[in-house]
Write a structure and sequence with these properties.
Distance between the termini: 38 Å
Largest sheet: none
Helix content: 55-70%
């Protein structure tokens, strides 16, 4: 006999775990900030435009890393927050940097328009993937809820279906109850 188990909600995270997640998130943000600042300060002034582009791209890679890190945690709220933060920062820095390209003397107007087109196209593709992933997560949650309800329900008998009681099926008397003792045997 197979017994069905109904999935239960995960236990609430402990205070120590929440504190650890907040501390790790803070450390990662400080490390990313120091890396971004070092990248901008180390390069000479004529390369600050390239440094801003590198910071934007690096921020998008950090967002991808934080998104992939969500799979390593039972409660990925910190990783999800980092992923959204780095995603927003990356595209904001890239859009502003490319839009201000002619001010830096690094881009022509045609280069600026082409850079903005590429950046906006990448943003649209990323948002499309985010929407697709959100729909997939919702569909999986609905499917798991329906599966849990099905597993906890009482299975129907094969004789309860309409095809089992149709005119082409011969009527048989019900079997005797299983609790009756067997009749005595004759010698």
């Amino acid at each position: 006999m197979v017994t069905a188990t109904v999935p239960t909600a995960p236990p609430a995270p402990s205070t120590a775990r929440l504190l650890g997640a907040a501390l790790l998130t803070g450390l990662l943000l400080v490390a990313a900030g120091l890396l971004f600042a070092a990248l901008y300060v180390v390069l000479p002034a004529q390369h600050h435009y390239g440094a801003l582009l590198a910071i934007g791209v690096l921020s998008l890679f950090f967002a991808l890393g934080a998104y992939l890190a969500e799979s390593l945690s039972r409660n990925p709220a910190a990783q999800r927050a980092l992923a959204w933060g780095f995603f927003g920062m990356g595209f904001a820095v890239l859009l502003v940097t490319v839009a201000l390209g002619p001010m830096y003397g690094a881009l022509t107007v045609l280069g600026q328009l082409l850079g903005l087109l590429i950046t906006v196209l990448a943003l649209v593709i990323a948002i499309a993937f985010i929407a697709w992933r959100a729909r997939t997560v919702e569909a999986t949650a609905r499917r798991l809820a329906m599966r849990a309800a099905w597993q906890s329900s009482q299975p129907a008998s094969a004789l309860d279906y309409p095809a089992a009681t149709g005119p082409s099926v011969p009527q048989v008397p019900p079997s005797p109850p299983a609790s009756d003792p067997a009749p005595p045997r004759s010698p």
